[in-house]
UniProtKB/TrEMBL annotation:
InterPro entries: G_HFLX_dom, GTP-bd, GTP-bd_M, GTPase_HflX, GTPase_HflX_N, GTPase_HflX_N_sf, P-loop_NTPase
Family, similarity comment: Belongs to the TRAFAC class OBG-HflX-like GTPase superfamily. HflX GTPase family.
Annotated protein name in UniProt: GTPase HflX
Naturally occurring in which organism (per UniProt): Intestinibaculum porci
Keyword Coiled coil: yes
Length: 400
């Protein structure tokens, strides 16, 4: 498919450049090639988004394209007025993102989340989508057939939304149960802008691979894997990537999945160090983390793709490491940094637990990080990683 892209220049040109490049990539992910871009220097028109003159000009030759794409989310009124003039399909940025999510959602949860986002997008647009209904309305004081049909559509969507929310609530409850069943292994959450290399990084630490492609939104559902970090077991979670102008209701829909981030012991913030738009990408991800309520969790800034020329806008945030997932560069530095943050308040203890202290043995296996254990005639030798206060509690079992 060939598309015409329409945008407005009313912010800084830097923001527009990022936005235009991203929406072209989003279009490609929907098998649409943008062959022409029309930019108007003006603030958004409340009625038609772009000026009416420019819209009429576009409408005159829009039939040469399969689709017309608008760079921002259109209001219901704008969409209705634009589609009244343009005969080919019209998409806005949000619709494009939703189409990608709908095509990539694989798990039950991801499908439910995308369904909820789509319904929230469609609900306020019903009147515009069914504008012909209004012509069927009855006289003053009466509910005509069209008005009744519109209300029935609204009720149907609200009913479906309620059902989807209930199902997501059940999935969330199941995940919380699974979380409680996990051992006391440390949990690392990978976050970052879409296509920054999170899934590729996770694949370096696990034999059970997750999908990793050079495209926007390759990952939609979280993937949790058991990994080894400097001979210690930990859990590593891959999450959906973020993007500028990500619709708020889409973040809301994926909040249940992204809650994994709020439960992590460490957030590894993966950043494309070669991107010219690096600061915008950092700001977008930081804002989403803020919306999720991530506050006190330690963050390690991991600047990926250091094999490529570094962005001139790069000012590293601490603590940080530079790596290349593609060329396997400086991965030892990454492991050292993760270990230092994850276990900064812990120390290694060598204990001898008498066999009659089976309850203590089981508690330590659940509450601490087990490094090694050996069953001997005199008792159970345990080598554990535990918070410093355990030393005083376990001093009678300590072996120097």
């Amino acid at each position: 498919m060939v598309g015409l892209l329409v945008g407005l220049k009313y912010r800084s040109s830097f923001d527009l450049e990022i936005s235009i490049e991203e929406i072209k990539q989003l279009a490609l992910a929907c098998a649409i090639t943008v062959s022409e871009t029309v930019i108007q220097e003006a603030s958004p028109n409340k009625v038609t988004y772009i000026g009416s003159g420019k819209l009429n000009e576009i409408a005159a030759y829009a039939n040469a394209y399969d689709v017309v794409i608008f760079n921002e989310e259109l209001t219901p009124l704008q969409m209705r007025n634009i589609t009244d003039l343009i005969d080919v399909p019209v998409l806005d940025r949000t619709d494009l993102i939703l189409r990608i999510f709908e095509s990539r959602a694989a798990t039950k949860e991801a499908k439910l989340q995308v369904r909820m986002a789509r319904l929230n997008y469609e609900l306020p647009r019903l009147a515009g989508a069914h504008s012909e209904i209004y012509s069927q309305q009855g006289g003053s004081g009466f509910r005509g057939a069209g008005e009744q049909q519109l209300e029935l559509e609204r009720r149907r969507i609200r009913k479906t939304l309620a059902s989807v929310r209930r199902q997501l609530k059940e999935v969330k409850k199941d995940r919380q149960t699974q979380r409680k069943r996990r051992s006391t292994m440390k949990c690392i959450a990978l976050v970052g802008y879409t296509n920054s290399g999170k899934s590729s990084l996770l694949n370096l630490f696990t034999s059970k691979k997750v999908e990793s492609k050079d495209m926007l939104f390759a990952t939609l559902q979280t993937a949790t894997r058991k990994v080894m970090i400097k001979e210690r077991e930990a859990l590593m979670i891959d999450t959906v990537g973020f993007i500028s102008q990500l619709p708020h209701f889409l973040i809301e829909a994926f909040k249940s999945t992204l809650e994994e981030v709020t439960q992590a012991d460490l957030i590894v913030f993966v950043i494309d160090s070669s991107s010219d738009y690096i600061q915008t990408q950092i700001n977008v991800t930081t804002q989403v983390l803020k919306e999720l309520g991530v506050g006190e969790t330690p963050i390690l800034y991991v600047y990926n793709k250091c094999d490529l020329p570094t962005s001139e806008f790069l000012v590293p945030k601490d603590p940080h490491v530079f790596i290349s997932v593609k060329d396997h560069l400086h991965l030892d530095d990454l492991e050292e940094a993760m270990t230092r943050i994850l276990y900064q308040d812990e120390e290694r203890l060598h204990l001898l637990i008498p066999y009659e202290e089976g309850g203590l043995y089981q508690r330590l296996r659940q509450e601490t990080t087990l490094i090694k254990e050996r069953f001997a005639a005199e008792g159970i030798h345990l080598l554990i990683e535990a918070p410093a206060y355990y030393r005083e509690q376990l001093k009678e079992y300590l072996i120097s």
